[in-house]
Design a protein that fits this description.
The longest helix is centred in the middle third of the chain and has 18 residues, at 69-86. The protein is elongated. The protein has helices spanning 45-48, 60-63, 69-86, 101-112, and strands at 2-5, 17-20, 120-128, 144-153, 156-167, 170-178. The protein is an alpha+beta fold. The protein has a domain at 64-178: Roll (Nuclear Transport Factor 2, Chain: A), CATH 3.10.450.50.
Length: 179
């Protein structure tokens, strides 16, 4: 209901309150037994407790081999040198033994852009490539790894991803993405 006052002249009797009914906008209540459409049947106990047709796989992180220590050391030093070349703190010629010529051209292009502040590597992670695939040599040793890193420049965090492979007992960067 709403309340309103009727106006009166000053000095006369105080205003009177009057009420007016409010229109009901809600639908009429229905009994709980009647639903507007057909309902789903209740599932049986057998249906609720049956086994999944999928076979369970063991977690991947348990069978993943650790990367070789030499790969981790190479990844950390190579990424640090790449960042220093981009910041113009190191000559490009020092990257030649570390990466392919196409990647060096990409790093040179990155170094051409103006940058504010120097970058510092925050974290480097190395993950061995699947040993059942092309990531191992004839002796079963890991010869390829993926590298994930982050670095900070002017208060902003950037990401780096790379792939390193072992060629003739030396690691070499074959793919690089700087974000």
């Amino acid at each position: 209901m709403t309340l309103s006052t009727s106006s009166a002249s000053p000095g006369s009797t105080p205003p009177r309150w009057t009420t007016a009914p409010v229109i009901d906008c809600e639908p009429a209540p229905e009994p709980l037994g009647r639903l507007p459409g057909p309902s789903c049947p209740t599932p049986s106990a057998d249906t609720l407790h049956r086994r999944s047709p999928r076979t369970r796989r063991p977690p991947l992180h348990l069978c993943e081999p650790p990367p070789p220590k030499s790969a981790v050391i190479f990844a950390e030093t190579a990424l640090r040198q790449v960042i220093e070349v981009i910041d113009r703190r190191r000559p490009v010629a020092q990257l030649r033994p570390l990466m392919t010529p196409a990647l060096i051209d990409g790093v040179i292009a990155q170094a051409g852009a103006t940058r504010r502040g120097s970058a510092t590597i925050r974290r480097v992670r190395v993950r061995a490539v699947d040993p059942r695939g092309a990531g191992t040599d004839q002796n079963g040793e890991v010869c390829a790894a993926e590298v994930f890193a982050s670095f900070m420049r002017a208060g902003r965090v950037h990401a780096v991803a790379a792939r390193i492979e072992r060629h003739r007992d030396r690691w070499r960067m074959v793919a690089l993405q700087i974000g």
